Amino acid sequence: MKVMSSANYVGVDQRLSPRSDVYSRVNVQLPDGRSVMMTMVNISADGVLVRHDQVLNEDEIVHFQMPVIGKIQGVCIWSVGGRSGIHFSTTIAQSDYAPLLRAMGAR
Q: CB within 8 A of 13, min separation 6: which ones?
């Protein structure tokens, strides 16, 4: 799976799959090992948009503790003003995606 780098992001919608709007708090392990809470704004099988108070730099690897699927790794593609786009290292299985959305309260 190809991971997009921030150098070629330039605002063009390069999503690999459609996003679902969510508003869910999730535990995230930062590169320095700290665990923090972030708010998921939208999610797809390939990535997530999160809001956070911490500094998160492009190309940093983070680990999400998600309902249904457990731990999943992602890389920060872009980060501006407390919002970051994260690309998952592995795609969430289609069979897990709908149960994950329900567990996060998506409509």
A: none
In one-letter notation, the amino acid at residue 41 is V
Burial 73-85 (b: 16+ CB within 10 A, else e): ebbbbbbeeeebb
* Rounded Cα–Cα distance for residues 73 and 54 (Å): 18
Q: Domain limits of the chain?
A: 42-107
The first and second tokens of residue 16, run together, are: 């690999």
Other CB atoms within 10 A of residue 21 CB:
12
Q: What's the mean pLDDT when you consider all of the chain?
A: 87
Report if pTM > 0.85.
no
